[in-house]
Write a sequence for this structure.
């Protein structure tokens, strides 16, 4: 399969024999093998909200990124490249970022895009009545707190300089700010500004979005599909497809629809990989992801507070068997809390070996003596509950493996399956009055959960610093390692990338020693593609990477 | 008759209130709420708490319930927690596909059960009887998700006769007759699943009811008068055996709705059953409650309908 190329430069004007468009705005030209046609793809869950500032999930964002554009967007190597902004500058004190918009950008309704739309979008996130939960991302902007508290009329750190120029000033140097901006879709003020921000979720604009991205929203039939069509005025050139339909349905249903030719592309569960590979019409795409699964430990539990026990668990669990068996090889193990394909992963981290013999020795030394099937110390059995959230079938199947592996070294594990909201009530408990409270020894012992980097390793901060234990944050496990906390806080304000790499890799090494999270595996994402669809090339950014260049035969 | 119906409707209203209380209580008692399903490192807990307060989720159960009843009494079903959609329109858009699926399945089930039930009763312990009885037991015993997947595998993937899922071929954009035929093709497999499980039970009841009638004196009289066996079956035995069958039909409607939960999910059918499952997992109470209440109304209406039909069919039954 050849990869379609397109030029981003104004100077290079490709003249394709197959099909060349009249220059879109900005003179950008796209080369398509075929122009026109409809592609149908699928995802496993229906989006909830299409206003990108309302609690977005991956399923929401997969649709939103068709319709909306950002100032800057991630590249395949996770740096940032211009999107709606043609360039940006960082001030000398590293607190101000100034963006210049491309010339001639328009919204899907033909209105021009201006710097005021950008300012509107970021200001709305700080509005006192803003209901979407993303305020924290921009709360480091100067004046955001005052505006959020209703004490100011505007966010002083957001300045419109002219129609095409906007600047953001943070209260202190804030390293993840570029990634934050790279994750915010820009909304048209003349559409969304006409709605009371408090009513954004209920308003029709949450179901019929209007942006400046490659595709124009057409319709969303609940329970069935979302349909978008090519935007002729897209700054990067009109997409090759005329129409894209995204269906939603159960994993196996969508797999069946792919196998029967009703879909041009769909995500494939691991169990379906063989049926896609053996189908001569279909191609399997294997993509690395930035997410992984781990065993979380309640460090308030005296058993788990002992590093020897955590290390014994890590040594006793046969993670290679999970990768080769449950993932059928589509994935890998990892040895610390960062995904192996991210720059924060320390390449020299000490590997976690599968060594039940060593695990037994460690437990012996720690005073846990075998008595019958399980170990005990001071009359207390070495027994732990393992809370397993349902919904991820591969993860669910790791639970009995963990149970069996740990039984072999004398640790008793009792599995409790529950849906995700129920698990959350254990990790972030509430008292009888419904008020969030601190985690206690009894709330949980071990749990299975996944984590993925969305934009920047600063996202781990709330999981790793002692001040953010529930009810103040996501440090459910109760980890309190001063070096880790210091490094995480330093990473926020350090702008030099090499220094940040060093900081987070050191966090990775320290968390490997701690094993407060016992890392299990990193699954790859699988997609099946039918014979019609050309140019489908999902990558670490998701399914829609390169969507404007997709075409159908 | 009218006083009876009015009385039953009044009883039904009381039952609905009780059902709403229990259903709401169970929904809220399920651990976690709509906002707690949303854990994202970029959304700190205080933001989640603000959202909970906005939805009233920080209130005790009875406060939430009274508020919900108050809104419903004023005709306001509220907004979906997950999507912000107005619940009435959201659930309303799902009623059509569910009723299309259920209605078709119900009609086919009824015809098939009456036909096979009568045929097997006419020739009890014949090869046909054993065959149908065996198939009926299989239909009752095999879980519908398995039947559904087996049908998809054989008829959609292996033979390619029918599509695997959905309401229609979305990319084709059919209209008119073509759309009707396309939707018909999409209906076949999900309807078959519902019919296989639904008819299995009904056919057993029709068979035994007809068998019982065939042993009655009036049947012997009819036969001795020289009435053909066909007419004896159709006009005498089947008609009289409809009485117990009507009662079953009353409960068959809600049972079909229950069956649609799994069938709609497996076939990506945009109906209420699938929406109910999604709402429960998302702890989207307003949507789940609306569907629960609609199901309760269906159950009550089904049993009232059965009673009214009973009186209409059997002159001995009088409601006064």
């Amino acid at each position: 399969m050849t990869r379609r190329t397109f030029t981003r430069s104004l100077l290079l004007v490709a003249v394709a024999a197959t099909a060349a468009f009249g220059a879109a705005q900005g003179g950008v030209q796209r080369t398509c093998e075929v122009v026109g046609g409809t592609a149908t793809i699928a995802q496993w869950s229906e989006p909830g909200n299409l206003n990108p500032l309302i609690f977005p999930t991956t399923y929401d964002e997969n649709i939103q990124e068709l319709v909306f554009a950002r100032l800057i967007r991630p590249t395949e190597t996770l740096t940032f490249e211009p999107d709606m902004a043609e360039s940006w500058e960082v001030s000398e004190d590293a607190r101000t970022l100034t963006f210049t918009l491309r010339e001639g950008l328009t919204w899907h309704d033909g209105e021009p895009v201006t710097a005021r739309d950008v300012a509107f979008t970021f200001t709305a996130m700080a509005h006192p009545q803003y209901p979407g939960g993303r305020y924290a991302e921009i709360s480091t902007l100067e004046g955001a707190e005052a505006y959020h508290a209703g004490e100011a009329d505007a966010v002083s750190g957001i300045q419109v300089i002219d129609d095409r120029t906007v600047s953001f000033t943070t209260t202190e140097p804030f390293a993840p700010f570029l990634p934050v901006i790279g994750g915010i879709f820009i909304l048209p003020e003349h559409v969304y500004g006409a709605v009371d921000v408090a009513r954004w979720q209920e308003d029709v604009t949450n179901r019929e979005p209007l942006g400046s991205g490659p595709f124009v929203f057409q319709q969303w039939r609940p329970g069935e599909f979302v349909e978008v069509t090519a935007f002729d005025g897209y700054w990067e050139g009109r997409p090759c497809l005329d129409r894209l339909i995204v269906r939603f349905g159960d994993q196996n249903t969508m797999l069946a629809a792919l196998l029967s030719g009703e879909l041009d592309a769909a995500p494939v569960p691991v169990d379906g990989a063989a049926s896609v590979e053996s189908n001569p019409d279909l191609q399997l795409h294997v993509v690395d992801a930035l997410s992984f699964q781990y065993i979380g430990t309640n460090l308030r539990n005296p058993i788990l507070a002992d590093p020897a026990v955590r290390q014994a668990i890590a040594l006793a669990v046969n993670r290679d068997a999970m990768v080769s068996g449950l993932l059928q090889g589509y994935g890998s193990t990892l040895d610390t809390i960062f995904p192996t394909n991210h720059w924060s992963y320390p390449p020299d981290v000490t590997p976690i070996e599968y060594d039940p013999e060593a695990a037994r020795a460690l437990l012996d030394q720690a005073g846990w003596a075998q008595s019958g099937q399980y170990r005990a110390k001071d009359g207390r059995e070495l027994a732990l509950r393992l809370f397993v959230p349902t919904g991820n079938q591969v993860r669910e199947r790791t639970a009995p493996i963990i149970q069996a592996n740990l039984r072999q070294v004398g640790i008793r594990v009792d599995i409790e399956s529950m849906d995700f909201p129920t698990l959350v009530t254990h990790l972030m408990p509430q008292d009888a009055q419904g008020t969030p409270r601190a985690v206690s020894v009894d709330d949980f012992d071990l749990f299975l959960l996944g984590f993925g980097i969305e934009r920047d390793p600063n996202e781990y901060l709330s999981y790793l610093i002692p001040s953010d234990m529930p009810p103040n944050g996501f440090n459910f496990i109760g980890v309190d390692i001063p070096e880790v906390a210091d490094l995480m806080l330093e990473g926020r304000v350090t702008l030099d990338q090499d220094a940040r790499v060093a900081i987070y890799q050191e966090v990775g090494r320290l968390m490997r020693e701690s094993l407060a999270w016992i890392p299990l595996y990193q699954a790859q994402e699988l997609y099946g593609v039918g014979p019609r669809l050309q140019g489908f090339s999902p990558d670490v950014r998701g399914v829609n990477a390169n969507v404007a260049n997709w075409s159908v035969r | 008759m009218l006083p009876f119906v009015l009385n039953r409707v009044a009883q039904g209203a009381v039952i609905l209130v009780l059902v709403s209380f229990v259903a709401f209580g169970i929904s809220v008692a399920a651990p976690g709420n709509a906002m707690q399903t949303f854990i994202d490192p970029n959304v700190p807990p205080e933001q989640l708490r603000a959202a909970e307060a906005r939805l009233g989720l920080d209130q005790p159960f009875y406060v939430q319930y009274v508020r919900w009843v108050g809104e419903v009494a004023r005709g306001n079903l509220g907004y979906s927690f997950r999507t912000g959609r107005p619940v009435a329109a959201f659930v309303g858009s799902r009623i059509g596909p569910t009723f299309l699926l259920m209605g078709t399945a119900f009609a086919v089930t009824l015809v098939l059960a009456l036909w096979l039930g009568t045929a097997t009763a006419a020739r009890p312990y014949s090869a046909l009887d054993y065959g149908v009885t065996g198939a009926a037991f299989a239909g009752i015993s095999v879980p519908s998700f398995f039947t559904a997947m087996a049908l998809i595998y054989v008829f959609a993937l292996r033979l390619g006769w029918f599509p695997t899922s959905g309401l229609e071929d979305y990319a084709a954009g059919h209209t008119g007759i073509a759309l009707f035929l396309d939707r018909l093709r999409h209906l076949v497999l999900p309807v078959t699943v519902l019919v296989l499980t639904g008819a299995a039970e009904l056919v057993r009841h029709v068979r035994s009811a007809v068998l019982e009638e065939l042993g009655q004196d009036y049947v012997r009289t009819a036969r001795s008068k020289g009435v053909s066996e066909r007419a004896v079956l159709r006009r005498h035995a089947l008609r009289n055996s409809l009485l117990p069958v009507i009662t079953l039909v009353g409960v068959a409607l809600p049972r079909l709705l229950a069956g649609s939960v799994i069938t709609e999910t497996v076939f990506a059918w945009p109906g209420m059953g699938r929406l109910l499952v999604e709402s429960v997992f998302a702890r989207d109470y307003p949507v789940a409650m609306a569907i629960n209440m609609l199901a309760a109304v269906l159950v009550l209406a089904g049993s009232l309908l059965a009673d009214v039909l009973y009186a209409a069919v059997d002159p001995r039954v009088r409601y006064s």
